[in-house]
Amino acid sequence: MPQSFVRIMKACLLLSSLSCATVGCNPWSAGADATTADTPEAIFFDDFHYTTFDAFRANGWRARTETGHPGVVGATWSQDGISFHPAAAGARKGMVRLTSVTDGSAANTRHTQFCHARKYLYGTYAARVYFRDAPSQGPDGDEVIQTFYAISPLEEPMHPDYSEMDFEYLPNGGWGEGELALWATSWETFQLEPWTKVNEYDTTFGSLEGWHTLTMHATKHQLRYYIDGRLFAEHSAKVAPEVPMSINFNLWFTAEGAIDSDALRSYQEDVDWVFHAVGQQLSSAEVEARVAALRAAEVTFTDSVAEMTPPLPSPCGL
């Protein structure tokens, strides 16, 4: 019997035990966004233990190459900004790094994004992310966005069936705020021209440089955002997700926030792991216990979250 199968089975047993201990093997809410004791637990977990992009892609990830919103108009989006670091400090099983660069011009600006399949809706989303307050190269000051989020395509401007929920860290300010801040934003819909939005958001000011566990709870009634287990934002049913989303990370520059310099600067964001549990609201501590159980069983990737029927297109372009 393959050792990878044995490890996954051990992890499933550990996770089943943890699930009963932490949530009592009961539904977490009534309705279509709940699981039951008779429903096998569906999870997605990636420890980003990669050495090649082919292995990354084989597990369902895509790099964005499509130009366009958001960010600097005319900038490129490329997989060149994605790198793997299997022996990184602070990331036990390795990590993936996003690196975006600019010299203030569109021609020399490269944004970075990677996306998983569009099959996630209600449940717990979590990731361990390293935010940075300064560039790894060049002068500081550009308005740069470091993110973890879930999103659906927008069928047309102001279409009501749209889903998006974001963690966005702005170490040099932006969006009308001059100081560094973390934003939690939940979207009902929007249009680009003229700019119109229907959303709810919260901000917390001050440096968050370093490793943090970011957790989102999504139901059809409410959204909650947590930083290292601390409740940060609660948003209403008006902006709760309505259609399946993909899981995303990106790193990009605002269109208006470049400093007055043509020196090349490079910004980075690191991701240790990402986790999703369908139809459950798990605390950050419970998520971390699940991750520890998977690691104890030497599972670096598992995905039992079913595709939609039929599978939905999964564009990597927002």
List the helices and strands and how they pair.
Blueprint: H1 3-23, E1 43-46, H2 53-58, E2 62-63, E3 76-77, E4 82-85, E5 95-102, E6 110-115, E7 123-131, E8 144-151, E9 164-170, E10 181-191, E11 196-205, E12 210-218, E13 223-227, E14 230-235, E15 246-253, E16 265-278, H3 284-296, E17 301-303
Helix pairs in contact: 1-3
Quickly list its features.
single chain; about 325 residues; mainly beta; Jelly Rolls; eight-stranded mixed beta sheet; globular; hydrolase
Quick summary of this structure?
With 318 residues, the chain is mainly beta.
Structure description:
- With 318 residues, the protein is mainly beta.
- The chain has a single domain (42-282), classed as Jelly Rolls (Sandwich).
- Helix content is 13%, strand content 36%.
- The chain contains 3 helices and 17 strands.
- The strands form 2 sheets. Strands 1, 4, 5, 7, 12, 13, 14, 16 and 17 form a 9-stranded antiparallel β-sheet that branches. Strands 2, 3, 6, 8, 9, 10, 11 and 15 form an 8-stranded mixed β-sheet that branches.
- A hairpin with a 2-residue loop joins β13 and β14 (230-235).
- α1 (3-23) packs antiparallel against α3 (284-296).
- The longest helix has 21 residues, at 3-23.
- It comes from Exilibacterium tricleocarpae.
